[in-house]
Design goal:
- The chain contains 5 helices and 7 strands.
- By secondary structure, it is α/β, with parallel strands linked by helices.
- A hairpin with a 4-residue loop joins strand 6 and strand 7.
- The chain starts with 5 loop residues before the first helix and ends with a strand.
- The model has no long low-confidence stretch (mean pLDDT 91).
Length: 208
């Protein structure tokens, strides 16, 4: 297997983070809420990156983009994070874990090496819970623990999660089928840099 050029890999990761960070619903701050046009644009970009890395791409009923690298046997290592954001977000929070997974899986795909397990890179659509009063909707669907009552939650404009999913092109009847079987998911790994806003007492302003 070819040696990794760490400097080149880091530069590529930085470019991907900056590119994804430019996708926002607002011009002067990063705002990318679940099932919005900005989320759709980000998901499409992530899907292209996965395809370019040699992964087989799909998207489930809760908007999770999945990039699969086949291995030997049924077991899969799940790597990923979320691509939705809080209001005025940090661009590393969530996307870095997705990008790290793409680069890692892409390295093995390029080398043509068959691992004793498959790899699924997951770009969850919802973790922050900013648009709807619920968190982890996408990941719980993958885990098989999604609460179907969550579909009736509404956003600030009165749109239910079920309606938002339909507008996004998703069929909620497919949600139970999104879960990984117990004998499929070997482990889950998330590379995560937490970037939360905090109140600066000195300036009396929010800061990231």
């Amino acid at each position: 297997m070819a040696e990794l050029d760490i400097q080149s890999l880091g530069a590529r990761a930085e470019l991907m983070i900056n590119t994804l960070g430019s996708i926002s619903a607002e011009p002067n701050r990063l705002v990318r809420l679940f099932l919005t046009p900005a989320h759709r644009e980000a998901a499409n970009l992530v899907a292209r990156w996965m395809e370019d890395a040699g992964l087989k791409v799909s998207e489930d009923a809760l908007g999770t983009v999945r990039g699969h690298l086949a291995g030997v046997g049924k077991k899969r290592l799940l790597i990923g994070s979320h691509i939705d954001t809080v209001i005025e977000a940090g661009m590393f929070d969530g996307p870095f874990g997705v990008i790290a997974g793409i680069l890692a899986a892409g390295h093995f795909a390029k080398a043509g090496r068959k691992l004793p397990f498959g790899i699924d890179v997951l770009a969850f659509g919802d973790e922050e819970g900013i648009r709807f009063d619920a968190t982890l909707a996408s990941s719980t669907a993958c885990a098989g623990t999604f609460n179907m009552a969550t579909l009736q939650l509404t956003d600030s404009e009165g749109v239910t999660l079920a309606e938002a999913l339909a507008r996004y092109g998703k069929n909620t009847d497919d949600i139970p089928a999104d879960a990984y079987a117990r004998d499929e998911a070997a482990a889950y790994v998330e590379v995560h840099i937490e970037q939360a806003r905090c109140w600066n007492i000195a300036t009396s302003r929010w800061a990231s």
